[in-house]
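Renewal narrative, Specific Aim 1. Our central claim is that a sequence can be written position by position from structural information alone. The example that follows is taken directly from our test logs and has not been curated for this report. It begins with the structure tokens describing the chain, in the order in which they were read.
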């Protein structure tokens, strides 16, 4: 910031040098452009839209994704039905019990999501939630 005048009088001239500010903003812009595509590491599903409150994702939460073909993904790892039930049983006996967040594709048959809910109930999972996209106005 340059404060002063060209001559040596006692007058104050307030002039802000914007170049360092612009440099910092350009560096931040470049950082965000590079990091945004790297942030998303998930199975692409077309989530249904509904009004909901944002839920903070804790590390002990389990993300169960059901894609359009009906394949189960446990924290983005594909599973067979037998392995899925084994993982549910293991999660049900953990203390504290993790929350099961179900992300079902809009095009998936309702039967696959209902089977996942029934398996979770049989295994003894107590906390189950559905993940949706916010409804557009």
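The sequence written for that structure reads:
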């Amino acid at each position: 910031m340059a404060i002063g005048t060209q001559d040596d009088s006692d007058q104050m001239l307030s002039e802000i040098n914007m170049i360092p500010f612009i440099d910092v903003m350009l560096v931040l812009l470049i950082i965000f452009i590079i990091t945004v595509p790297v942030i998303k590491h998930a199975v692409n599903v077309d989530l249904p839209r509904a009004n909901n409150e944002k839920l903070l994702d804790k590390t002990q939460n389990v993300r169960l994704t059901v894609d359009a073909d009906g394949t189960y993904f446990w924290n983005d790892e594909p599973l067979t039905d037998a392995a899925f039930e084994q993982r549910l049983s293991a999660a049900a006996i953990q203390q504290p019990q993790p929350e099961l967040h179900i992300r079902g594709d809009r095009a998936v048959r309702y039967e696959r999501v209902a089977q996942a809910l029934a398996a979770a109930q049989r295994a003894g999972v107590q906390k189950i939630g559905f993940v949706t996209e916010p409804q557009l106005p």
